[in-house]
Recover the amino acids of this structure.
């Protein structure tokens, strides 16, 4: 930890942005399953379908209500969860650094927002499970899933009375979850692609926490930042490709984010 703190202080002495990049591991201590872990969504599966099949536009076109059922169940898990010390530490860092700070998250669980990270500096690059948008994309507008849509303790069929609320308020077409699917691409209006790339290119420090480094935009973030000379830190309970990059840079810490982030942020704020 001491060497990482020293490397971060050196990086912070240079002008530039500080980017925190988070994945499912940051919410694991809040009880939200990860994707690729032992009890992960992609590992244990849904009852009838392999979940990676459900998280596609193709599946939504063929069986929209099965896809909705699975997302409404996952949404219930997220709503039951509470932010943990990792989320709160990132709020403290945001408060300390202000405009210099950016939080890029792959998580759709809303826990960073609920912990208090301000919208202006929170970039949800895979969407938000609490929001829906028009499946025909008649408008880029996102809508909160109506309060009348009930929590579901497991993936159960979506009742007719609920389905009517899962439609675009503007054109009446079916709504879809506001999440990025496997057969879709990042873009700026929905997933902040250009913003996040720009932040990465201007970063002096990137602190990665709780991701297995399996998705494309996080790779772009880390590569762009490293190319521009940023120091890279990785916090994860397991080895992962970002850890290898960080080990050659500011350092990799193999411990839970809920323990490491509060300690690291405290050490960096108290300078
Ligand atoms: P993964 O499930 O792939 O990886 C979770 C990572 O968190 C693993 O590397 C774990 O070792 C680590 N981890 C678990 N508990 C931790 C803890 N307490 N502290 C620190 N690290 C911990 O999740 P992501 O990398 O976030 O995308 O997955 C990225 C994307 O893949 C997701 O956003 C989702 C999925 O497909 C979409 O749905 C578009
Ligand atoms: Zn519409």
């Amino acid at each position: 930890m001491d060497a990482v703190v020293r490397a971060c202080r050196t990086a912070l002495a240079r002008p530039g942005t500080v980017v925190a990049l988070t994945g499912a591991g940051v919410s694991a201590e809040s009880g939200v399953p990860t994707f690729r872990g032992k009890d992960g969504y992609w590992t244990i599966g849904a009852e009838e379908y392999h979940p990676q099949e459900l998280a596609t536009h193709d599946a939504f076109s063929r069986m929209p209500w099965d896809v909705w059922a699975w997302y409404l169940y996952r949404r219930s898990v997220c709503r039951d969860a509470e932010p943990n010390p990792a989320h709160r530490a990132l709020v403290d860092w945001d408060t300390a650094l202000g405009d210099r700070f950016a939080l890029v998250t792959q998580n759709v669980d809303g826990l960073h927002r609920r912990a208090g990270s301000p919208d202006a500096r929170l970039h949800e690059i895979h969407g938000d499970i609490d929001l829906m948008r028009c499946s025909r994309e008649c408008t880029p507008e996102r809508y909160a899933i109506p309060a009348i849509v009930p929590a579901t303790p497991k993936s159960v069929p979506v009742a007719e009375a609920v389905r009517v609320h899962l439609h675009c308020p503007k054109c009446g077409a079916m709504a879809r979850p506001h999440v990025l699917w496997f057969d879709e691409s990042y873009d700026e209006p929905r997933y902040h692609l250009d913003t996040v790339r720009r932040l990465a290119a201007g970063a002096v420090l990137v602190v990665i926490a709780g991701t297995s480094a399996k998705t494309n935009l996080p790779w772009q973030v880390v590569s762009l930042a490293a190319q521009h000379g940023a120091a890279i830190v990785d916090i994860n309970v397991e080895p992962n490709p970002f850890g290898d990059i960080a080990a050659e840079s500011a350092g990799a810490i193999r411990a839970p984010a809920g323990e490491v982030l509060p300690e690291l942020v405290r050490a960096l704020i108290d300078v």
Notes: The mean pLDDT is 94. The longest strand covers residues 127-134. The pocket of zinc ion (ligand 2) is lined by residues 134, 136, 138-139, 168, 170-171, 173 (CB under 6 Å).
